[in-house]
Design a protein that fits this description.
Blueprint (H helix, E strand, L loop, with lengths): L1 E4 L2 E4 L17 E2 L6 H4 L2 H8 L12 H13 L9 H4 L2 H4 L5 H10 L2 H25 L7 E2 L2 E2 L3 E7 L2 E2 L8 E2 L5 E3 L2 E5 L5 E5 L10 H14 L2 H4 L3 E6 L6 H9 L6 E8 L3 H9 L6 E4 L5 E9 L14 E7 L9 H6 L2 E7 L9 H9 L3 H14 L7 H25 L9 H9 L3 E6 L2 E6 L6 H13 L6
Parallel strand pairs: 6-12, 12-13
Antiparallel strand pairs: 1-2, 3-18, 4-5, 6-10, 7-9, 8-9, 10-11, 13-17, 14-15, 15-16, 16-17, 18-19
Helix pairs in contact: 2-3, 2-7, 3-15, 7-15, 8-10, 14-15
Length: 474
């Protein structure tokens, strides 16, 4: 700021930052504080057992420990195998960490059998984490919609495009004109855990029934038995999951004691357009927002009985929402003619038990949160694939899912308040990347966090909760 006095300008002094002399000779400084959660949930031990065949002579680095270190590195925001150096250079915290070539060799040795074993090990750790959550507090939180808690578990399936700029195996042109992979994933809406994922070529179909069935079955296998049986499980997808065979599979799971129901997008075909035009205005009802208040300019109606649903499971309902288009919304010719944006979905939730069209519509709209999970997942491993080999990249995807789980378990088991729902970027900035110093004294190893760090109390509390978690037997 300048000040004028009698024709002269004076520049107001600006406080300068203190001069800091920088050197690279520090010791006992660490930047990661929550990696022990993998040990506390039994993930490390389960990985070690799963990959034991890859260590026939019992020498060198434990493959399970290498896999855990890779997952921790990805949870911490690493993007390449070489980023293991961050853990390797903090031996006082992480112990011996494998070299980059050793980690590469492990990923190259992971075949389909080992990949399935890794997924099974992650399911074992999830069961421990959920039991710890039950002892820690109220257990796995409920998903919420329209200001209400949804009973049971909510599974969201969705595909995404991952661009690859090199000729990686099975990378292919995508429907958006790019080039890369088209993985299909399933997230648990309750916690943000990544239950399953399937790496696919870029030209894989968005509505491939076999892939949807495989990813759903793998996701269900991740859920502990006590929750998989006897708990309501809602399966949500966009219109790519509306294939009759997939919905029949969701319904058939009930024969195995899994109480599944579906809520899936549906294409606006000509019969749907005719039904919408024939719907009297008096049968359109105000739509709801996620907090339970009325959604301005939006209405909901039920088209069940006005559209032929032959071949779909008995009890399937058709519900449509129309609303004034938001600026920049992409409208079909039908929407432009009607002056409203329309979205249609199918569900087999019955009328009884609170299955009103208004509630079911806002419940289905909650599926959009899967896009946030995918966006965060791309910063936790599967936004970049390291190898030209498809099997290596499939193993990388599996470890990315483990990294996402570690962050989710951190929120559920160790954190409160705002941080309990924080995205990875915020967790890394506030907790995982805080600098602290390791000191020794009185035969103890102490981690000293800066007394002025704004989130020091949350970090100390997280450490105390981590230490208090009951460990799995063995």
């Amino acid at each position: 700021m300048s000040v004028q006095a009698e024709g002269t300008f004076y520049v107001q002094a600006i406080g300068l930052r203190p001069k800091v002399q920088v050197s690279a000779d520090g010791s006992g400084v660490v930047g990661h504080v929550l990696a022990d959660l993998a040990d506390a949930t039994g993930l490390t031990a389960a990985y070690s057992a799963a990959l034991r065949p890859l260590r026939p002579r019992g020498t060198g680095h434990d493959p399970g420990r290498i896999a855990t270190d890779l997952a921790v590195m990805l949870a911490d925001g690493g993007e390449a195998i070489a980023d293991l150096a961050v853990l390797r250079d903090q031996a006082a915290v992480f112990g011996p960490v494998a070299s980059t070539p050793t980690a590469w060799r492990l990923l190259a040795d992971v075949d389909e059998t080992a990949l399935a074993s890794l997924a099974s090990a992650r399911a074992q750790a999830r069961e421990v984490a959920w039991l710890q959550a039950a002892e820690h507090g109220e257990g796995i939180p409920a998903a919420r919609t329209a200001g209400r808690m949804l009973p049971g578990l909510v599974l969201d399936l969705d595909a995404t495009l991952v661009t690859c700029h090199s000729e990686k195996a099975q990378a292919a042109p995508t429907y958006k004109g790019g080039f890369g992979f088209h993985p299909l994933l399933c997230f648990l809406a309750n916690t943000g855990e990544a239950l399953s994922g399937r790496l696919r070529p870029g030209n894989a179909g968005a509505n491939t029934t076999a892939d949807h069935i495989a990813v759903l079955d793998q996701a269900l296998a991740q859920i502990p038995d006590a929750h998989r049986h006897g708990t309501d499980i809602l399966v949500r997808t966009d219109s790519a999951g509306s294939a009759k065979a997939f919905l029949a599979h969701v319904r058939d799971l009930r024969k195995r004691g899994i109480r599944t129901c579906f809520s899936v997008g549906y294409a606006i075909t000509e019969p749907v357009r005719r039904a919408i035009r024939a719907m009297p205005d008096r049968l359109w009802h105000p739509a709801l927002d996620q907090d339970g208040t009325l959604r301005a300019g939006a209405e909901v109606a039920e088209l069940t009985g006005m559209i032929d649903l032959d071949g779909y499971p008995n009890g399937t309902r058709v519900i449509v929402r129309r609303e004034r288009p938001h600026p920049g919304a992409q409208l079909s010719l039908f929407d432009q003619d009607e002056g409203r944006r329309h979205q249609v979905f199918l569900t087999d939730t019955p009328y009884s038990g609170g299955g009103s069209a208004q509630f079911l519509e806002v419940r289905h709209r909650g599926h959009a949160t899967v896009e946030d999970h995918i966006r965060c997942g791309k910063t936790t491993g599967f936004g970049r694939f390291p190898s030209r080999d498809f099997h290596v990249n499939s193993a990388w995807l599996e470890l990315s899912l483990a990294a996402i789980d570690l962050l989710a378990w951190t929120r559920v088991l160790l954190l409160d308040g705002e941080l309990a729902s924080a995205e990875p970027k915020k967790l890394r900035y506030r907790l995982l990347h805080v600098a602290a110093r390791l000191t020794r004294g009185g035969r103890r190893l102490r981690l000293r966090i800066s007394a002025t760090w704004p989130w020091r109390n949350e970090l100390v509390t997280a450490f105390h909760r981590l230490a208090a978690l009951p460990r799995p037997a063995g």
